Batch of 4 targets.
Target 1
Amino acid sequence: MKRSGRWALALAFVAVLGFVAWRAASHQQQKKAAMQQTTQARELPTQVQAGEVLELQPLTLNITVPVNGVVQAVNSAVVKAYVAGQLRELQVREGDSVKKGQILARIDATEVDARWRQAQKQADAAKAQLAIAQRQQDNNLALVDKGFISRTALLTSAANLDGAQANLSAAQAAADAARKSVTDTVITSPMDGQIAQRFVQDGERVGVEAKLLEIVDGRQLEVQVQLAPADSVYVQIGQAAQLQVPGTSSANTGEDDLQPVQAQVARINPSAQTGSRTVAAYLKILELKADSNKRTPQLRPGLFLQGFVTTGQSLQLALPLTAVLTDKPQPYVQLLQRQASQDGPAPLWRVVQAPVVLGPQTPHEASTWVQIVSGLSAGDRVLVGATGGLREGTAVVIAAKAEQNSKSGAQTAPAATGSQ
């Protein structure tokens, strides 16, 4: 066979092999495309309800400063013993109501009464000495005019009269002090209120300045809070505050079944504490209004409250805290992205796990919202309901009217409460 014939035969063989390879590759691609179409056709999208999708929009949020403190009475008094002796007739106990001037107890007055009688007798004796000195002075005045005594004797009797008057004044002062001690043996209430503490028992012997009872007026309460240095510059007198009693959540719903305590900044300490640099502020508790859905808390001095002080407002992007997932090193949300090409009447969405940078948390009604610093934009749709964590790329179909509800919900969402 000639050389040209062998080359032609080789080229024909290579062409046949290329055609066979091309047909095999084409068949493999068709098979793969058919498998992909079959897989896509079998993918069932997850359906979510309208309330589980929120279209992110800027909201006017209140800027707040977190605070916590202890309830205390504006008016209180510690009743002490002003004389020493045995305590008698102490019958009031913690929780009893008392009125101003009400007798609370008595101290045995045997000793102080004896001292008062002694002082009174000394005053009577000084008064008698004054009378003698006065008569002598009157006689000397008559005698000196007739020349029977010298002027020096008259001056001596006048000095004796002045001394007798001074002795009488001192004796009367001592008698008054002794009478005051007798009066102090009767312990009376200095104010209207309730007994908060009882430090002694009936029949004990007490000393001077010994604590007997503590009385508080529960009609006017306030909360003393300590403000951090960075927060103290934003808090001003007259700003509103909202507080809660920790640990009062319902075991069934997990929500607080008590009304929030409304308060107002009444006073701010003009100086910071030396060690911690914190500033003390006093929140006046306002009168609570009746609410049929929640109970009214019974506040008492000593209770611990926590909450926030509203210092201003700002326009921010925020989401419910439950919409933020934290099972990865960086917090993220389930963002819905609409597919460009799709079949069927309902729009198809894909779940995308979008990392976000969170700002301060924002109390809002019975839930907590959090500010979104970066990672999302206005108009983004985020899963905020009870759907749970979905795998990234999961197909999602929003139920009918979900888009309208999500938009209207974002536009009509009430102003939440933010934090500084």
Target 2
Amino acid sequence: MSKNAWEALESSLPEGWQDAKLLGRIDTGEGPTPVLIDTGIVFDMSRVAPTVSMLVADRAFDSAAGQSLGPLAELGLSAAPDGSHRILSPIDLQCVKAAGVTFAISAIERVIEERARGDAGGAAAVRERLEARIGGSIRSVVPGSQEAADLKAALIEDGMWSQYLEVAIGPDAEVFSKSPALATVGWGADIGIRSDSTWNNPEPEVALLADAQGEPVGATLGNDVNLRDFEGRSALLLSKAKDNNASASLGPFIRLFDDNFTLDDVRACDVTLRIEGEDGYVLDGVSSMREISRDPAVLLRQTMSEHHYPDGFILFLGTLFAPIQDRDQPGAGFTHKVGDSVTIASPKLGKLVNRVVTCKQAAPWTMGIGALMHNLAARGLLAK
């Protein structure tokens, strides 16, 4: 690995990564390969289980059963598509789910999108009215409580109720499908926004990896790329706002839960965001998981509901952050431009770095489940 490539990756690893156990995928040139990073050594786990979902199902996290590929610092990992060891999204066959409006205060921004009909220029006046009415009270209510029901009644009477407020403070969380299995992109990859979107933003989040029973096994960072203009015109356009080529990134690795990293660390972490544009624009933000309205364990239970995910799932937990800092003209707010560099970071999870392009420009998603099965079979990994 070149010095610059290693420095880029090393700066994106979790603090204390040498003592953590990290789960991920790389492409060694033969195809997607599940790996464990244990005490700084990379282990090929494909002969133990050919997919990450199978490793999780079997709790096959004993690196000694895998094949050592050597120290991470010497392996040559990069995001380059022509690299000898390319970093991929750390998940494969898991369903990709996302929870929305999990920070009650962020509901204000969703209501703004709805009331402004997706027009960024009309958002400022709506924001001022809503914050004056519910900015303080919405922070203090527990979703599904009697206080939440009383606030709902008052807002209905004022003609200010919204479907977004329903999922913010009502009994049921918003949980939706973000992406097909295998369609997420990883650290260093391009992320995509639709070329016909004029108001969009990143969503820096923590994502929990869960097994088929909904039990969390680890966490990573995610970018739930969002088209505010599409969703603002109609909530029924959510799938077009959320599910697009290269519109969901995860990584760099799943940090597995152990004695040194637990769900309580997720509950207490801060997630920072930095956007650097080729035009010199810089935006910084932070989302504190301490302010989440619904506990991560509750969101996992609501995601499971009465359903079964035989290959497990990953769940984006939502974000407090919705950028409103003007970029080009006063009152127009923020939207992405091609070439933006997006860095999402949290000390115990590392850094997820991606570059913004249009969905048309992003590498096409070609390896679906069928192609993966053909690849694994050709490598003799499905023999058993």
Target 3
Amino acid sequence: MKFLLEVTMDEGALAEDPTAELQRILRYWGGNLKHYDLKPGDGSAIYDSAYREVGRWSVEGQAG
């Protein structure tokens, strides 16, 4: 299995301060993962601090 995190960094809050914005995204989603089984097919959109969709995380592949 693979855990994939894809974030577009060329506009909005990520373009203005990429380090701070990525830190915020990783903290938020790191804490939010407890709400998921983390099995293939799980995933969610990722939003920046202005609540614009900037990417997605997903779990892909076969379990076991």
Target 4
Amino acid sequence: MIAVKYFGAIAEKTNSKSEEFLFSELSLSQLIDSLEKKYQLSSMTFSIAVNKTIITNAENCMLKNNDEVALLPPFAGG
């Protein structure tokens, strides 16, 4: 199982703070493609973290059972 957490505007768009997928092994780019088809996220800007580490290249990232993926909107400071 792979857990996906949504934050900020992404949580609003998906109408959920998280969901789980029953995959034991999957590439991050496959997961993002699946989420794009389900939620039309391409118009949104976000970073992706896997197990609390920001991922810069989704193509080379393989997810495995019990991984946690977070879709993070841009952060604003003040």
